[in-house]
């Protein structure tokens, strides 16, 4: 199955994704973290940050996640994936898909930003930054919502694993 973590930059997607993968591996499951930032940097250098490029990035991640799923691996995706329509498209092309909304208020995400991306975006030095001058469209009905400003990492991980276990014994 694909566990798709979406949310604003610095909301906690990668932190939760790593923790979920660690728990799955410790339980003897095959799991792989697909981090949107890492894939974009290492694999898909041809993509920029236009809406079209962001959508293509999400499509590529979705195809890779589905390949892993078909091979019996739980794909844990950590990607901003800001546009609802493309996330829905990926869901429609996935055999088993659980959407996890990693929800943290913008102010909290800005406080967590050690790279200074939000500051640079607010100063106009970084154009098209999600949450500042490019939209983030939250899911309408995610299977899981993790409030990373209110929950511990472990509480959020438990919610994800519970939902995944409800969907299939794959996470069990």
Descriptive overview:
This protein has one domain (2-167): P-loop containing nucleotide triphosphate hydrolases (Rossmann fold, 3-Layer(aba) Sandwich), CATH 3.40.50.300. α1 crosses α7 (153-167) and α3 packs parallel to α4 (84-92). The protein has seven helices and five strands; from the N terminus they run βαβααβαβααβα. It has helices at residues 13-26, 36-42, 51-70, 84-92, 106-112, 117-122, 153-167, and strands at 2-6, 31-35, 74-78, 97-103, 144-147. It has 172 residues and is of the alpha/beta class. Helix content is 45%, strand content 15%.
Uncertain parts: none
Order of helices and strands: EHEHHEHEHHEH
**What proportion of the residues is helical, as a percent range?**
40-55%
Number of domains: 1
Structural class: alpha/beta
Instruction: Find the count of extended strands (DSSP E, 2+ residues).
Output: 5
Shape: globular
Number of helical stretches of at least 4 residues: 7
At CATH level 2, the architecture is: 3-Layer(aba) Sandwich
Task: Tell me the CATH superfamily.
Answer: P-loop containing nucleotide triphosphate hydrolases
Mind summarizing the main beta sheet? 5 strands, parallel
Question: Which strand order spans the largest sheet, edge to edge or round the barrel?
Answer: 2-3-1-4-5
CATH class: Alpha Beta
Mean pLDDT: 91
| Amino-to-carboxy terminus distance | 12 Å
Q: Beta fraction of the residues?
A: 15-25%
CA-atom Rg in angstroms: 15 Å
**What is the third-level CATH name, the topology?**
Rossmann fold
What are the defining features of this structure?
Rossmann fold; globular; 172 residues; 7 helices; alpha/beta
